[in-house]
Design brief:
By secondary structure, the chain is an all-alpha fold. It has five helices and no strands. Pfam families: DUF8057 (PF26244).
């Protein structure tokens, strides 16, 4: 039994596009790890009702193959680790303190800078007499 067959039920009757892309991704990973399942991939293609959805499935399959490229030996423990990381989706959590907020969340190229900041409501500096006119 292949990694794909252990993870996913192959006796399906119908599937939506999200499930199809997830399965195509897993088939791509499995193929790169030495377990071809072309019949399942063709059945998934046939289930998609538009060329757009078929192309999304194809992209997911290729993405799975590309991301699993790091596993060079299908019989090594590295292949199981790649499968676990890419397909089984080991959960990675992000500490809320590490997520930037406010102005710090934007890259410098998208930051508006201080040009668009409003002046203080009580500021009269813009209408004051210029310093060079004072004696």
């Amino acid at each position: 039994m292949s990694r794909y067959e252990r993870e996913f039920d192959t006796g399906w009757d119908a599937m939506d596009k999200d499930e199809a892309t997830t399965r195509a991704y897993a088939i791509g990973v499995a193929e790169r790890l030495g377990e071809s399942n072309r019949e399942e991939l063709e059945a998934i293609y046939g289930e998609m009702d538009s060329a757009y959805h078929r192309s999304m499935v194809e992209l997911a399959y290729e993405e799975g193959r590309n991301e699993a490229k790091a596993a060079t030996d299908p019989d090594s423990d590295d292949a199981d680790a790649v499968w676990a990381e890419l397909v089984e989706g080991e959960v990675r959590t992000v500490d809320p303190g590490d997520v930037p907020d406010g102005r710090d969340s934007l890259p410098d190229a998208l930051d508006s800078g201080e040009l668009l900041d409003r002046q203080d409501v009580d500021s009269t500096e813009a209408v004051d007499r210029p310093d060079f006119l004072d004696r």
